[in-house]
Structures are given as C-alpha cells and as structure tokens.
Design a protein that fits this description.
Length: 289
C-alpha cells in the first residue's frame, strides 16, 4: 500500500469535504418552491380565463376567436339592449326581495336556535342548513314538483320563494357564526336594568349582529343574482332572469356583448365582496376597541 506524502493528506481531506458537501446538497427538484409554484398555477388556472374574457370584450369582431381591433361598441350596445336590461331588472327584483325577507327570517331563526331550547331543535337545525349541501339541481326539481303538487302556477313569485330557501340558509349560518362569539349575558344585564326582551334584542343584540347580517345579505344577493338552475325551473312565462337570458344567447356561441356583460358582473361582484370585507374588518376593529 503506497504511503501518502504530507502534501497529499490536506488535498484528500479537502476533496472529501467537498464531496460530502455535494452529497448533502438537496437535489434541484427539492430546492424548487413547490407550494409557491402550485399556488401560482391554481391562480393562473382561475384568473387567466377571466383576463382573456376581459380583453376580448373590447374585440371589434363579432367572433371571439378573431381579434380585429379595439372598440367600446359592445358596452354601448349592452346598455341599449332592452332584453338585457329587462332581465337585469327581474334579477334585481328577485334578489332584493328574497334577501330582505331572508334577512328578517334568518336573523330570528339564528337567534332562536342559539338562545333557546325546544324539542326537535337538532332536526330543525339540520333541515334549515340542508340547502347548503344539497345540489342546486335537486332543489330546483323538488321545488318544481312541490309547486305542481299544490297546483301553484309558475311566476315571478315562485322564483322569489325558491330563492328565499337557499338565501335563508346562507344568511342564517353567517349570523349563527357571529352569535357564537357574543356574550349572552349582555341581554340578561339589559333586562336586569329594566329593558324588555324586545328592547334588549333591538338595542343590545341587533347592533352587534348588524355586520353579520349585512355580510350574509351581500353573499345571498350575489348567489341569487348568479342562480340559473333554480330560476329556470321555477320561472313562469315572461319571467326571465339575467342568467337565463345569458344562457339563451350563448347556445349559439359567445359574442363580445356577453363578454362585456360578464366583465361588468365580475366588477360588480368584486365591489360587493370589497364592501362585505370592509364591513367585517370595521366590526372586528370595533370589537377589539
């Protein structure tokens, strides 16, 4: 076995340390930020189609696949389209009416379920929130069958009644979440000071629930404006909501005016979401103070 010279020993030691560092270094695939890449891929998958839709809403051509130039004519035509405006008015009537009725009933329902005990409370609670997990097509078909059984003609009122069912569930669960973080003894203290149960509800509990009620109403409003299945199954003659009108037009192809309408709906939904988040943050800051 050859004997190593004194100069070869440090060189071999450095070589071993360098080889150890290379062996301990993670591979390239291990150094990649996979969570960040996956998140970016998911966001791109969701929002790049919306960006493309927004760009092609300014397309001068009537055919979405061909870009021929920039124009605002489709937005001008959209605001002069009587069918779109009538459908939008119908959707606003349905959404506003259903949300207002659901806000009153949902608030009373959430307070009753949180503050009182009665026989069958668990069953009633499960039935109340059932529209959150049942598919829309199931709700639509069952509602249509029920209306046929009681011989109630389809109309604008039947759309509103059907929308109240799922709006009630969404508003109720938002308010119930808020109730879990409130001190129930505040109402008792108000009644000990001479307030009636109605006064303690209106002056003590309701102001604390207002942010949750508004957030739930905004959520239900967006869902009601977006609904197609339930409205199409429960609509009568002449009652056409905005999603129904959009669906009737895209069966022959997506035109730039529908792209423009979609952009406006996305912007409106974003404003509503911003308002809801702002109200929630303001209520949390007041709670901290």
């Amino acid at each position: 076995m050859p004997v190593k010279t004194p100069m070869e020993v440090p060189v071999m030691a450095r070589a071993r340390r360098h080889a150890a560092r290379i062996a301990s270094r993670p591979a390239l695939w291990q150094r990649l930020p996979w969570p960040l890449l996956f998140t970016g891929l998911m966001f791109g998958f969701m929002y790049i189609p919306i960006l493309v839709l927004g760009v092609y809403s300014f397309n001068e051509s009537r055919f979405t696949a061909n870009w021929t130039g920039f124009t605002l004519d489709w937005y001008r035509r959209l605001f002069n389209d009587a069918r779109i405006l009538n459908a939008l008015g119908t959707s606003l009537v349905v959404a506003c009416t259903a949300v207002l009725i659901s806000a009153v009933i949902g608030t009373l329902m959430a307070v009753g379920l949180a503050r009182y005990r009665f026989p069958g409370k668990g069953i009633y609670l499960g039935i109340t929130y059932l529209p959150l997990i049942v598919p829309d097509i199931t709700i639509a078909v069952s509602t249509l069958v029920f209306l046929a059984v009681i011989s109630l003609p389809l109309s604008l009122g039947t759309i509103i009644s059907a929308h109240i069912v799922f709006c009630l569930a969404y508003i109720g669960i938002v308010i119930s979440t808020r109730l879990t973080g409130l001190d129930p003894h505040l109402e008792e203290a108000a009644q000990d000071l001479g307030a009636t149960p109605l006064q303690s509800f209106l002056r003590v509990l309701l102001p604390q629930l207002t942010p949750a009620i508004v957030s739930g109403c905004l959520l239900a409003f967006v869902l009601s404006m977006d609904d197609f299945l339930i409205a199409s199954f429960t609509a009568g003659g002449g009652a056409v909501t905005l999603p129904m009108e959009i669906f009737s037009r895209i069966r022959t192809g997506v035109k730039p005016d529908i792209n423009a309408l979609s952009v406006l709906l996305i912007l409106a939904s974003g404003v509503i979401a911003f308002v809801a988040e702002y109200i929630r943050l303001q209520s949390e800051q007041r709670g901290i103070r």
